[in-house]
What we know:
alpha+beta; Archaeosine Trna-guanine Transglycosylase, Chain: A, domain 4; Pseudouridine synthase; ten-stranded mixed sheet; seven-stranded mixed sheet; 8 helices
Amino acid sequence: MVKWIQKSEEGSISDYGTYPGSRTDEELLKKGMIILDKPSGPTSHQVDAWIKEITGVTKASHGGTLDPRVTGVMAIALQDSTKLMPILLSSKKEYIALVNLHKEMPIDDIKKVCNEFIGKIKQLPPIKSAVARRVRERQIYYLEILEIDGRNILMKVGCEAGTYIRRLADDIGKKLGIGAHLQELRRTKSGQFTEKDLVTLQDVIDAFQENKIRDVVHPLELIGDAISSVVVKDTAVDAICNGAPVMLSGIIKFTDDIKKEAIVGIFTMRGEMVGFGKAKMDSETMVNNRRGSCIKTDKVIMKKGTYPKMWKR
């Protein structure tokens, strides 16, 4: 379980900023996310277009493309939240897959072969994929067989972003020596988002017609539950908004799971996301030092001037 490490006892010294839960509907749409249950049929880009039309925003982007027939968890970022794409796209995924074997096989043989795919695997993206067709290494964190019914295998797969489950099904069939194909697929997790967080397209339409936007749009800060984080002093916020790195002297507290080069979220004391960057120190180093640059700011979410300038060039 992730724990917070206190670096400074300094409290907030300004009246600037807004608690994410206190934003107006207009502000929420600029810094919000919709966790959608993607229906079978449309492409992921068509879903983005529908969300823009329903909500009136000019930018909407999904974190991880799903094929037209695939359903399930799709995190859609709105407006300024689209800057979170590097985090959303790299988040771990979970799927429930129905795989059809081309011949029946002993259950023990199926389980043995499936277990061989847990860990690092190599995949060649499908011909119709949006990425270059070269062999890539991906991580399968778990592969659980939920049910076997004749030639049909129902399985749960937890994997690294960018893993092709259709290719995985094909490779399992080849390893068994009988062939196999993916029959149905549903994404059940994307990062920390699960099926419990989902709303449908009809839910979104109804919420906007009934002026209940908060029922379907969440503050972008929700992403903070999935990444390492630091909370910075009010005096440091505007400097970070102008691209400055996060200095140890400007930190109030940080999570104990920070690893060097990992993505780290940068937050104010009110819980607002300032931006995110790459860690130049791990948590232990941050504990044992008092000065130095610890996070290189990569993306700034907060608008410059939200907090007063309290720094010198």
